[in-house]
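#struct-pred

JT: dropping the chains for the assembly here, can someone run the whole complex?
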Amino acid sequence: MTSRPASGAAGLRPDALRQSYIYAALILVAAIVIIPLAMTALGGFKTLGELRTNAFGLPRNWQWSNYGDILLSERYWLQMRNSLVIALLTVGLTLATGSMAAFVFAHVAFFGSRYLLNYFLLGLMFPAATAILPLFIRIRDLGLIDTYWAVVLPQVAFGLGLSILLMRNYFRSMPKELFDAAFVDGCGYIRFFWRMTLPLSRPILATVGIISFVSSWNSYILPLILLNSEEMYPWPLGMMVYRGEFATDWQLVLAFITLTILPTVIAFFAAQRHIIAGLTAGAVKS
Amino acid sequence: MTTGTTAGPVVRLEGRLWGLTRRQRTTLRTTLPVVVLFLPPALLLFTLFVVLPMGEAAWYSFYNWNGYGEPEQWVGLRNYEFVLGHKVFLTALQNNGLIILVSLLVQIPLALWLANLLAHRIRGALMFRLIFFLPYVLADVAAGLIWRFVYDGDFGIVSGALQVVGSEPVFLLAERETAIWAVLAVIVWKYFGFHMMLFIAGLQAIDKEVMEAAEVDGATGWQKFFRITLPLLASTVRLSVFFSIVGSLQLFDLIMPLTGGAPGNSTHTMVSYLYQFGVVRLQIGFGSAVGVVLFVISVTLAFTYRRIFMHHD
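RK: done, full complex below.
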C-alpha cells in the first residue's frame, strides 16, 4: 500500500447522476456491514422479551446492568488479560527469532541457505490445523498443556514463514554500501544487526508485529485444543464458553460480544492506516 | 564478537590451514558466529512445532490410537479408507469447494466493484473503506456469534425484518437446505473488505495517464473497466483468488460458533470435520489421517495454482 491521498488516485470527479448511484451502492453495502454490528451492541441493552418484539428499534428501557455486570465480573478482565499476554509473547518471540533468521538469509551467504529458506517457506503452504493432533501430543509430552507457552510457541512457529519472508525482503532492500562501509569500519554482522538493521527496519517490524498480534488476538483453534482451564482462556474461547452458559439469554451474550470486540474496533479506528497497511502489505508481499 | 577482519594471529598465517584458503577462513570466522547464533532459535521452533508434527501425523495416521502410551495398533490404510468414504467428509470437501466458488463468483466481483466505486473522487471514501474492512479485523469467532444472533429465528434480525413485513420467522441455520448458504453469506460479509483493499492497492498502482488517455479517446465506463482496469489488475485478481483458496481450506473459526457443522453435519469444512471426528473423540490416528488428506489437498492446490496462474507474478 502506498500512502497516496485517500480520495481516489485514478478517478475524476463524477457527475451528479453517477455520484448518486455510487453513494446509493456504497451506503447499501455499508448498511449490510454495520447493521448486524449495531444491532448486536443495541441488543445488549434490551431485555430478552424486547429482543423478540423490537428487533430494530432503540431499547425502551436501557438495561445498563447487562453491560455493567460483565464489566464488573472477573472473567471478562481475565480473558482480556490472557489474550493480551499471549499476543504480546507471540509478537515478541516472532520478532526476535524471525528477524535474526531473516537477517542471516538476507546478508550471509552460506552453504544451503537457499534450501533452509525454502524449508521455512513450506509453512506457508498448508493450514496449521493439519498437524493439530500430533501438536497436541507434543505439547502434552513437553508438559506445557494449559500454559501460555502451549499457544505461544506453535503460533510463533506457524508465523515464522511469512515473518521471515517479509523481513528478509526488507533487509535485502537496504543499500549495500551501508553494509560495506560498516564492515570496513570493523563492524561485525551481529553489531550491524543491532545498530543498523533493526533501527532502520521499524516499518517492517511494525508490519510483522501487527500481523502476528492480530492473528494471535483472534486465534481460536490452538487455544481450544491446547488450553484446558477457563482461567487460561483467551477471549474467543471465553466468548464461546459464555455463550454456552447463557445460551438462552441472547441479551447477555450480545453485551458480552460487544464488550469483547470493543478493544479491536477502537484499536482499528485509532490506528487504521497502520493496521490496514500491515494486514494487506503482508498479503501482497508474500 | 566479530569485530575485525584483519587483526588476529590466525588470519595472519599465510597459506592453507585445514584445507581452507585464508580468504575462506576469514569468511568463516566472520559468518560462522552469526549463523550459529541467529538461525537456531527459529529453526528449532519451526522444526519442533510445524515440521515434526506434520511428519508425526503421517506416522500416526496408520494407527488406531487414543493418544495414551505408544501407538501400537497398526491399521494400515483403514483410517484413509474411512475418511475418503465418509459421507460427512465428502460433504465437507464439497463445502470447501463451494466456498472457493462463491468467492470467485460473488466475493471477488463484489470487491472489484466496490474498489472501483471507491476510486472515484468522492467525499467519505476513506470512511467507506474503513467500514468495509472492519469485518475482516474482527475475530471469526465474534463474527460467527454475531451472525448466529442475526439468523436466530426467535430473536434475530432476519426474522425481525420478516416480522415487519408480516411473514413467519425463519430458522436459516437449522434447515439443511439453507444452512450452508447462510454460512456462505457470512463468509462473504467477513472477507470481501480484505479483497477490496487488495484491489484498491492494485488500482493505485495503475498509471493515471492511461485512464486519462482512454477518456480523451471517448471510452465508456465499461470499456475502461474491461479493457484497462481488469487487465492491469490481473495479477491482483490472481493473488486474491489464491487467498480465497487458502482461506477456504483453513476455515474453522467461523463454522464453530455459527453451526458447529450442524444441521445433520451439512455445514462442516474439512478442518471442522477434523475437529469433530478427530479431536473431540480423541481419535489421534484417524484425525491425523484427515490432517494428511488436508495437507495433500492444500499443497497440491497451492502448488498447481501457483504454477499455472502465478508463475510470472
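JT: nice. Chain A touches chain B through 109 residues (CB under 8 Å). Chain A is about 75% helix and 0% strand.
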